[in-house]
Specification:
heterodimer; A: alpha/beta; 5-stranded parallel β-sheet; 19% strand; elongated; B: mainly alpha; Potassium Channel Kv1.1, Chain A; 54% helix; 9% strand
Chain lengths: 436, 169
Amino acid sequence: MRENSIDLRLRSFDPIEYLSPELFDLIFQHLSPKELMNCSYVSRSWHEEIGNSQNMKRIKVFIYHHTQNELNESLSRLFLSERKYRNISVNLGTMMFDEKVEQIARESSVKYRNVKFSDAKLYNSLWPIEVIANTVRDSSLCNIQCNLECNSVECLTFLHLKHLTLYKNSENIDKLFIECHDLITFNYTEKDDVNDMRVIENLLMNNSGLKVLGLRIVKCSQALYKVVSKCKFKLERFSFYAYKLNARMQSDNQNLLCEFLENQKDCLEILNIDQWCGVNALKLIFNIETLNNLSFNINHKGETINYIHINSNPAINRIDISEMIETDSIVLSEVLKAVPNIMIYKTCLMQYNDMMILERHCPNLRELYVEEFSVMALPPYSDSFSKLTKFKSLDINTEIVMLIISKDEEKRGHFEELILACYTRMFCDVLSSIVN
Amino acid sequence: MDIDRPSDPQVSVVSSDGTMFHTTLKSILLSGTIKDMIEHIGEGGVENMGAIPLQNVDSKTLEIVIKWIEHHKDNIQPTSEEIKDKTADFIDPWDENFLEMDLDKLYNLITAANYLNIPQLLWLSTRKIAMLIKNRTPQEIRSLFNIEDDWTPQEIEAVQKENQWCEEK
């Protein structure tokens, strides 16, 4: 620019005077948010134009203070600000929303009609409900965790919400979302004293595009099972926990679950379920070709929680228990009953009972991978291990390993691959005989 | 209308102050506004069409615009949607040099590029102003544009407090 050609003493070249607000705004698309804020110091009119600018959507406001007075001051300033912020996050922490601030918020709420509160920022930072009413309706993601009693909620609508997490809310808050039709993700944790699930049932019926569903409920009613089994959505991920559960589902509910699984068999990828759902449902689960991640969380006999995590193979000839936990023998035998053609068994921890169960239910076992044995007494040698072709053990329990690969040549499998971490002399002798 | 015809017909445009300029059809079609106008005329209308009046562009600015469109007539131009995602990793040195002009001319060029709907020229010219602002203090920006500082110290303090909340997204 030929600045020397401009007589700065006589004329102002303020772009605000030469350009329309839209064109003035276009200049700032080339500047960073930090530079944009710097420009707001230039003059009152620049401050005003920038505050109204589309570029404000690039500015993220985060308010957090350690003292109530500082918080009150910032919130009052925020509500009275001339800028049209679009992305505001307030962390109240353990502090309260002061009455005076709330009054200011009420008076200024009209101005905030188009402001979006961003996503999970409501998590710990509930605004007075009147403000939320004017702000959060456009947000595509909402995560509310509070025990706030809502009074004036009728103006709230969340028609286009895509992702919703409700955590132990009052029924009044649940009701806010009854109009949602576009949910993709819905996670729901029930409050202990809520028994009326009709709102949730309606939500499930209305959102046929749902892909991810997580339900943590006190006790699953048959009505809810019915709703889930009839829903039109095609889930990729389904998590289901009922935390006052019976160890086993009632048979009617098992049938409803089977119906649900039938509907989801061409889409479900991840399934987490915490109730023993019966062999029939399990057979269906193992036939879901899209499923690559399955976990059970079994509360057996109402006491101990046994967890089994299986990365199932589409053509289910393989069990992979990838957590270092003690498997419940009843659960494991039911699993193996449901999938009798297991050829590959992989586990982090194998117990005495597991070996017996494997022997009983896996006549075709060819490959065995064990990281650690938890075996107090040696089980008798099993002929079923004589079919093994691959065996890997990272345990140094020589006796168990020798039991499986067998000292007896006639009973020994024809191994193609052995990976072992055992070092005794006798063991080496056996190994050398295998190699020879 | 066949805009790919081998010969590039002449087109005339008239500025707001009555000056007539001649350019080629291919050049003038870089203006979305004029392109829409010509498309409404239909097949074969270009040759018989008279000079196109441009009420919102004066002759000094129109001359600059024509210089730019004639230079860029063979380049593929981004649409206004595409330009939103454009990053300034490379600016044609010809354009850099072209935009070395007085501020008032630059403002007129921005307004004309907007009226004529030439997204690339609008992007370049607004960027030129932004680059003048970039890395300057508020006082330096005031000096650059000869803007009066109309803040009170209390008001400036209030803006400073608000700016403390703001962080980059």
